[in-house]
Amino acid sequence: MDILSELILSGRIIDIVLGVLILELLLISMLYRTKGKGVPPYPLLVNIGAGGSLALGIKASVTGADWQWIAVWLVASLVFHILDISARWQRGT
Q1: Residue 91: pLDDT band by 50, 70, 90 thresholds?
Q2: pLDDT value of position 90
Q3: Domains in the chain, number
Q4: How far is Cα 14 from Cα 12, in angstroms, rounded to an integer?
Q5: What are the CA-CA distances from residue 77 to residues 4, 30, 40, 74 (Å)?
Q6: What distance in Å separates the CA atoms of residue 77 and residue 12, rounded to the nearest whole number?
Q7: What is the CA radius of gyration of the chain?
């Protein structure tokens, strides 16, 4: 088995994705706080929360977790998505 297939089948690729999401969250938050540029914290959190929850749902599926865990992560992603759309709707974007 090659490295990429091992990363995917073990679910470790999701750990890398989540690490990148956390790094993105930190860097964009610091830029917003120090320069006042970029994405404000709330929209950033709900957007990354939706993507991160989907990633965790994929990891749960790939690693053979019970279906309930997959459902939890998918529902969490839906909640974050609804919060994201709601915030965008209120801002008119």
Answers
A1: confident
A2: 86
A3: 1
A4: 5
A5: 26, 25, 20, 5
A6: 20
A7: 16
Q: What is the DSSP string of 52-91?
A: HHHHHHHHHHHTT--HHHHHHHHHHHHHHHHHHHHHHHHH
Q: What is the mean pLDDT of the chain?
A: 94
DSSP 12-50: HHHHHHHHHHHHHHHHHHHHHHHHS-S--HHHHHHHHHH
Cα–Cα distance for residue pair 6/27, rounded to 1 Å: 29
Cα 50 from Cα 39, distance rounded (Å): 16
| Residues in contact with 59: Cβ distance below 8 Å, sequence separation at least 6, in sequence order | 11, 14, 15, 65
Range of the domain at 18: 3-91
Does the pTM surpass 0.70? The reply is: yes
Give residue for tokens 């956390």. Answer: 22
Q: Residue 88 is which amino acid? A: R
Helix axes 41-62, 12-35, angle to 10 degrees: 180
